[in-house]
């Protein structure tokens, strides 16, 4: 923070030069703040940065965008606008999906920056909300049993392009920050199917792959049939990806108890700003 100007004192900044204003500012700070200011300036010089959302210089996330982002993310209990139910028609089952926010405004920008512009530091912003939603949707287990948090995988092409798996990255951050309760366990058991064999060739496929051979996703076989899983995704739009993930888990012997996401696409009639 700048020290108050002394009335009548002529400052270098008053001469109008940006360099003079910079010197003015540096000279007006306490030693500790001057050191922090110097480090920030040095970092900005060596590693120029800009806000992930509005591109304002010198901040990875500027204070205004940070405030907007926090205002658009929610902790449980999550209201009806942040919930929906998806159907698995062939099993005549419904499962509940809860999201921490609506996919609009700064939250949508932040998710896109995180997924498509390498702003991986945003995982720390998202982790508390995704972890809280997951904890709220997972009933307490009997001692010794866990609910598995299963991230929905990015497509192989997207993963190659980004170099990381966004949802898995958020879960890892939540785990590292101690936000995942002990009754939950992160298990990336879903994969995209990748085969050079002609469709229909069954030799060499696992039991679960053969069972769910109609879909693009498969899950590793459940060691314990009926293991409870909670799917985790970044954005839910039509729900088709979550349904494919749920079908793959079910085919491999798991029980899908629901899904959580960072954001849900608002219905067309919803006013988001
Ligand atoms: Zn900003």
TrEMBL record:
<dbReference type="InterPro" id="IPR051910">
    <property type="entry name" value="ComF/GntX_DNA_util-trans"/>
</dbReference>
<dbReference type="Pfam" id="PF00156">
    <property type="entry name" value="Pribosyltran"/>
</dbReference>
<protein>
    <submittedName>
        <fullName>ComF family protein</fullName>
    </submittedName>
</protein>
<dbReference type="InterPro" id="IPR029057">
    <property type="entry name" value="PRTase-like"/>
</dbReference>
<comment type="similarity">
    <text>Belongs to the ComF/GntX family.</text>
</comment>
<dbReference type="InterPro" id="IPR000836">
    <property type="entry name" value="PRTase_dom"/>
</dbReference>
<feature type="domain" description="Phosphoribosyltransferase">
    <location>
        <begin position="225"/>
        <end position="263"/>
    </location>
</feature>
